[in-house]
Structure formats: structure tokens, C-alpha cells
Design goal:
Number of domains: 2
Number of helices: 10
Strand order of the largest sheet: 1-3-2
Shape: elongated
Strand content: 5-15%
Radius of gyration: 19 Å
Organism: Candidatus Yanofskybacteria bacterium RIFCSPHIGHO2_02_FULL_41_11
Oligomer: single chain
Number of strands: 3
Helix content: over 70%
Protein name: HTH deoR-type domain-containing protein
Largest sheet: 3 strands, antiparallel
Order of helices and strands: HHHHHHHHEHHEE
């Protein structure tokens, strides 16, 4: 199991490292580097940790893996190039995550069969489109392009807001709400908060208004 951990981790890092040459946007490339560094650090910390501190360290590895998966999913949505290498890297990272969950179940839980099924269902619910998009990218790449060009289905609210702020730095909350007036104010504010929590945006206040810019 220990050797399999290292092999799956190494495969993920190699595939993710190759993506740097395909990401043209400097900001998104930096974010990919930061999230990949967090992932590597969390894995190395887990390998050297004592059993008494394993819970928090396992949680740290899980969070860094999820953050990296979320970033890859965003890159797949906005990429204008061939997304097959990116989706393969995403799929490989999902396999690493599943392996990590199964390992935890074997070590800490007696009902392994039940928990394995729960882990699989949780992975599918978190990233339901990964396998489908991989097949589509190989067989019908034009369908992915149609999804991205379709304003209502291919681009999420967070992506639209991020792209708007990227083109309009130091934009006020009021301006963002006006730009996306078709959406509820609660939806826009929630998307802004999630982008800030994910490190994509920064927020500052001058005492009168709140401004947003790319992180």
C-alpha cells in the first residue's frame, strides 16, 4: 500500500507538471503552481507524520487535493486548446483521491465494503462530468466547444464573474451586482466569496466601498 501511495502520487505530479506548458494565462498558471505545491507539501507531511497527528494531516491532504481538482475543472471549462491532457491529469488525481479514501477506510473502519461504496458515490457526486468529458474530448471535441460557447450552460456564474473582474480590476461590489443584475444579489455575493476563499480574487475596502481584483 505504501509503494502504491507513492506511485499514484508521482504519476499525478508528473501529469500536472506537464500542464504548465499548456496554461497561457500567467495568473492561472501561478495558481496551478501554488495548488500543486500545497498538494506536494501535504503528501510529504503525511508521510513523515506520527499517528497521533494523522487526522489533521489527512484532512490537509484531502483539502489540497480538492482545491487542485477544482482548479483543474475551472481550467477545463475556459481552455480554448485541447483539454484531453488536462482531463487525463484530473482523472489521475481523482484516482489518487479514491485510493487515499480507501486506505483510510481500511485503516480506521471495520465496515470496509459499505464505506468503499460511500466513497465512490461521493467522488461521483463531487465530479460527475469528469469521465464523460474525457470521452467527449476524444470522440467529439466540438461538443466541448459548444458547451463553452453556450452562455447559459458552459460557463458557471463564478467563471463569468471572475472573467469580468479580470478585465475590470478594482471593481466595486455595486458594479458587479449591476453587471449581473439578472442574477440575485445573494448568488453574486456568494460567488464572490467563493472566489475569494479559493484564492482567485482579493478584496479591499477604502471605508466607503469594497473593491475586487484578481488574486
Amino acid at each position: 500500500m505504501e509503494r502504491e501511495d507513492v506511485l499514484k502520487f508521482t504519476n499525478s505530479v508528473i501529469l500536472l507538471s506537464k500542464l504548465f506548458t499548456t496554461v497561457e494565462d500567467k495568473f492561472l498558471k501561478r495558481k496551478l503552481y501554488e495548488k500543486l505545491s500545497d498538494f506536494v507539501s501535504a503528501f510529504m507531511e503525511q508521510k513523515s507524520a506520527s499517528s497521533s497527528a494523522s487526522h489533521n494531516i489527512d484532512l490537509n491532504l484531502k483539502n489540497s487535493t480538492n482545491n487542485l481538482l477544482d482548479h483543474l475543472e475551472y481550467l477545463a471549462h475556459i481552455s480554448k486548446n485541447n483539454v484531453t491532457p488536462l482531463l487525463i491529469a484530473q482523472r489521475n488525481l481523482l484516482k489518487f483521491k479514491l485510493h487515499h479514501i480507501l486506505k483510510q477506510n481500511e485503516e480506521g473502519k471495520t465496515d470496509k465494503t459499505s464505506n468503499t461504496q460511500q466513497s465512490l458515490e461521493r467522488l461521483v457526486s463531487e465530479h460527475p462530468a469528469t469521465e464523460t468529458e474525457l470521452v467527449l474530448s476524444k470522440q467529439k471535441p466540438t461538443l466541448l466547444a459548444q458547451r463553452r460557447n453556450n452562455f447559459g450552460t458552459g460557463i458557471t456564474t463564478k467563471e463569468r464573474i471572475f472573467n469580468y473582474i479580470k478585465k475590470t480590476p478594482d471593481v466595486r461590489t455595486k458594479d458587479v451586482l449591476n453587471e449581473f443584475s439578472a442574477l440575485s444579489g445573494r448568488t453574486v455575493k456568494r460567488s464572490l466569496k467563493e472566489l475569494i476563499d479559493g484564492g482567485f480574487l482579493r478584496k479591499r475596502s477604502d471605508g466607503i466601498a469594497v473593491y475586487y481584483t484578481c488574486g
